[in-house]
TrEMBL record:
Residues 196-223 form a coiled coil. Pfam families: EF-hand_7. Residues 84-119, 120-155 form the EF-hand domain. This is EF-hand domain-containing protein. Keywords: Calcium, Coiled coil, Metal-binding, Repeat. It comes from the Eukaryota. InterPro entries: EF-hand-dom_pair (IPR011992), EF_hand_dom (IPR002048), EFHD1/2 (IPR040365).
Amino acid sequence: MASEELARKLHSRLAATQEAEPRPDPEQSPVRPTPQEPEGACGDSSSELSAKLTRRLDINEGNTAPRPTRVFNPYTEFKEFSRKQIKDMEAMFRRYDTGKDGFIDLMELKLMMEKLGAPQTHLGLKNMIKEVDEDFDGKLSFREFLLIFRRAAAGELQEESGLMALARLSEINVSTEGVMGAKDFFEAKMQALSVGSKFEAEIREEKEERKRQEVEKKQRQAAFKQLQSTFCS
């Protein structure tokens, strides 16, 4: 009985309190704003996702090239050239990469062609880059630079093109047959296989040369010690 009486008192007190409080007018009561997440939390993630989806769509439609993920090794990828030829190409590439950023841009290519004695128009220079520009960045990486000589050796360049002029006038000898243009692409591939064996031979020769130098160094040291002991005795 005591609990029921206590419950009735609490109920009546609650009702009296609610009646005493002023009831807000629904027409004048302010509308509480709905809590929102910070703009950066959703905006950044959605824009990043949108950019990724747009790039993927461009790659699927062939409008852009996917970013390369593998490490480029010219000696394994361009086996048709000897180690000396690749080193000569790299030296030439670095000579004209005046910006030292690992690329030859339009103005650097312009200077290169002028130095080689085959100046090109602005449109001609852009076409030269476009012909081997696999990542569509408007400049030549070292790999794309090597592609020029690969295509020249395979006979895939037009005789009057600026790239053929570059391959012919450069100081790099990519084999007489290659620069003049192979008549058959498969014939060029066979030449590449034969050059591949030369590549391995060059590595062996370099190792043998280092061994020979080490032996000569030890012989000179031994002779010097013997001569020194003779004078000291």
